Amino acid sequence: MGWMANETGLDKCAANHVPLTPLSHLKRASVVFAEHTAVVYGDVRRSYGEHAARATQLASALAAKGVAPGEVVATLLPNVPAQVEAHFGVPACGAVLNTINTRLDVDTVTYIFEHGEAKMVLVDSQFLDLAEAACANLASPPTLIEVPDAVAGIEASGRHQTYEDLVTGGTTDFEWIMPQDEWESLALNYTSGTTGRPKGVVYHHRGAYLMTMGTVISWRMTLHPTFMQIVPLFHCNGWNHAWMMPLIGGTLVCCRDITAPAIFDAIADEKVTHFGGAPIVLNMLVNAPMEERRAIDHPVEIFTAGAPPAPATLSKIEALGFNVTQVYGLTETYGHVTECLWRSEWDGHEADAKAAIKSRQGVPFPMMEDIVVMDADMTPVPTDASTQGEIMIRGNSVMKGYYKNPQATSEAFAGGYFHSGDIAVQHGDSYIQIADRAKDIIISGGENISSVEVEGVLMAHDDVMLAAVVAKPDDKWGEVPCAFVELKSGATVDEAGLIAFSRQTLAGFKAPKKVVFQELPKTSTGKIQKFELRKLAEKT
């Protein structure tokens, strides 16, 4: 048996093994960074001492209201301080946090309330009608706590207890209920499903803790960054960034309404150093008129994910003074789990070549074990940058599974990897690059066409603001590419011009056969809703 046979008495105990949880970050920060600014929103500025005290009061108040450990507390909130506080206060009373997308329809919110069995919901006054309508369809509706927003000029209705009244009724000496097992559930996030009912993704304390640790390394963060919360906190819990900020004594700047002036103002006035956002946010910044911009006099790091950004967009945003790192992940992986880690040997490349490299999804974050592109037999594809397969993921920041759906969970984890549903290639240096979502591949005359590739070409046209490409049924070819395009103001290009432009770069069969000019339907996180465009393409 060797050396291991002599390990008698070397067991886990309270002194040497503590369950990992992001709650520990705020407990530490409340002492170590007590006077440092934790949260900023308009004229609201709270130190870490105050932030932790309010989270404690919230936990105390929820427990007093009868919320028991393991029960669900939901939120319908934008990125406001109450949402940040809920990320700590809800689990600190032992409950599970369920942040709900504020742009969902009544029927879907009703389903989530019922499926998640929410005991209580913190709801912004702007979305109170939505919450009340969802509750009206339930036999045992959750208790609503209303969160008005004085900064945004949104007043309470008077129909429910307010959040501030709830919090101030709690005590600051409440003993946080820390997890006894790091596998305990921390959060419940419903996927933005485009077909059927959304699935409830369950996060554990361990995964979120390790996500915060890995992100600090990958984002090259040091103490006291100023971070702007642009990614909705109802989307993968804001990529876990609210849980991460106390780890490094960072200041979190809340962003309720995502506009170019709000972002430029925060960079200039609050000295924001980091933020995450979908490519649509980058697009908004590069196309902002000059009167909406402010000068950037310090480095600003951006994590972007959600869809591969067009190389043209990356080139333009870096010229403004931003450094963009492409990341990739899913709700099922707590957010980002791969990064396009920059290599010094690429420094000498031309701008277009750099942008093309930066649009790759890259390599695993430090807390992940293995992320690889596999074929249908779960064999890794050749790393030749052309053979396509599905991204398979194994690591510490993978969900526990889908709530009340063991069949979907076992299918997702078949063969010991999480099946992402994303189609990609792998380069010789191991960097992954998404070709498409499996459902977004266009098969025309037996040839596979990547909608991402076609979109990237269209986005390089000076008149194009946004482009999305989907399959359009075709009697001869089965499917052909159909482009939906948002133009910039003052644009002059027409359908024939864009098709001709795309044919300069693309093979003839890949060029769009139809171009429709309209505003593109988007989710609250800026993802283009291709399922809506597919319906339109069938009719054009």
Describe the structure.
The termini are far apart. This protein has 17 helices and 25 strands. Helix 2 (48-64) crosses helix 3 and helix 11 crosses helix 12. It is globular and about 70 Å long. It has three domains: 48-202, 3-Layer(aba) Sandwich (Rossmann fold), CATH 3.40.50; 258-438, ANL, N-terminal domain (Rossmann fold), CATH 3.40.50.12780; 441-539, GMP Synthetase, Chain A, domain 3 (2-Layer Sandwich), CATH 3.30.300. The chain is an alpha/beta fold and 540 residues long.
Distance between the termini: 72 Å
* SS element count, helices: 17
Q: Percent of residues in beta strands?
A: 25-35%
CATH superfamily of the largest domain: ANL, N-terminal domain
What is the helix content?
25-40%
- Reported by name, the CATH topology of the largest domain is Rossmann fold
Gyration radius over CA: 24 Å
Number of strands: 25
pLDDT averaged over residues: 93
Oligomer: single chain
The parts where pLDDT drops under 50 for at least 5 residues are: none
CATH class of the largest domain: Alpha Beta
Number of domains: 3
Q: Which strand order do you get reading across the main beta sheet?
A: 2-1-10-9-11-12-13-14-15
Given the helix and strand composition, which structural class is it?
Answer: alpha/beta
Largest sheet: 9 strands, mixed
Shape: globular
Second rung of CATH, namely the architecture of the largest domain: 3-Layer(aba) Sandwich
